[in-house]
């Protein structure tokens, strides 16, 4: 628990692993203690939970994965809104970006929306993940390495996309993709975050949080 708290306070992703469903190496169902361990890891704020021997050489790898997923989803659905997360100013040293991540999260929680962010460095998506908005964080990036890096962070769905020279054109393209994939319904509100240390579009000098429908 202390390690998870420390990592979250520093903006680092946390993976809880090792013997999570060890009994399922040889048996089709887990023990109560194992189910409890998964639920506790999720409640403590781990970004990811991981199997090892259960899926590497166990008799029931698919059942183990499905069981872990089921417990995690059920636990998240029953969690109350957590206490305000520790600020990261001393770690990120970018108070402007942190402020926007905090307020974008507040907007997401108030309106019940997902968040769309465009990033080349992953920093804003990581900050958003730290503050735990209710909806999914759709992080669009034109860097494959950033897409891979973000895949482990809580609530982040990293998506590779080619950025055009026009911000509005890129945003429209991203929203259309989400609608085509069934991740966003037509007419559904979504919070758009355009902020960070390095502007993606050179013509822009503003930090923006806007709600699109």
TrEMBL record:
Pfam families noted in UniProt: PK, PK_C
UniProt key word Ribosomal protein: no
Pathway annotation: Carbohydrate degradation; glycolysis; pyruvate from D-glyceraldehyde 3-phosphate: step 5/5
Main enzyme class: transferase
Organism: Taxus chinensis
Catalytic reactions of this protein: pyruvate + ATP = phosphoenolpyruvate + ADP + H(+)
GO molecular function, one term: ATP binding
Keywords: ATP-binding, Glycolysis, Kinase, Magnesium, Metal-binding, Nucleotide-binding, Pyruvate, Transferase
Protein name: Pyruvate kinase
Keyword rRNA processing: no
Residues annotated as domain Pyruvate kinase barrel: 3-65
InterPro entries: Pyr_Knase (IPR001697), Pyrv/PenolPyrv_kinase-like_dom (IPR015813), Pyrv_kinase-like_dom_sf (IPR040442), Pyrv_Knase_brl (IPR015793), Pyrv_Knase_C (IPR015795), Pyrv_Knase_C_sf (IPR036918)
Cofactor: K(+)
Similarity remark: Belongs to the pyruvate kinase family.
PANTHER family: PYRUVATE KINASE
EC number(s) recorded for this UniProt protein: 2.7.1.40
């Amino acid at each position: 628990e202390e390690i998870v708290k420390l990592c979250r306070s520093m903006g680092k992703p946390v993976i809880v692993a090792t013997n999570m469903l060890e009994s399922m190496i040889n048996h089709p169902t887990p023990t109560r203690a194992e189910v409890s361990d998964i639920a506790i890891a999720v409640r403590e704020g781990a970004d990811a939970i991981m199997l090892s021997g259960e899926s590497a050489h166990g008799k029931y790898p698919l059942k183990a994965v499905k069981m872990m997923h089921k417990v995690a989803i059920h636990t998240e659905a029953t969690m109350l809104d957590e206490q305000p997360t520790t600020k990261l100013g001393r770690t990120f040293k970018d108070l402007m970006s942190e402020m926007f991540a905090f307020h974008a999260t507040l907007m997401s929680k108030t309106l019940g929306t997902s968040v769309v962010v465009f990033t080349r460095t992953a920093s804003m998506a990581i900050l958003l993940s730290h503050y735990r908005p209710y909806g999914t964080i759709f992080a669009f990036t034109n860097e494959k390495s950033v897409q891979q890096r973000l895949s482990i962070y809580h609530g982040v769905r990293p998506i590779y996309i080619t950025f055009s020279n026009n911000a509005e054109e890129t945003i429209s393209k991203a929203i259309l993709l989400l609608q085509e994939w069934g991740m966003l319904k037509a007419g559904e509100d979504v919070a758009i975050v355009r902020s960070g240390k390095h502007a993606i579009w050179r013509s822009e000098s503003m930090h923006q949080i806007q709600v699109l429908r």
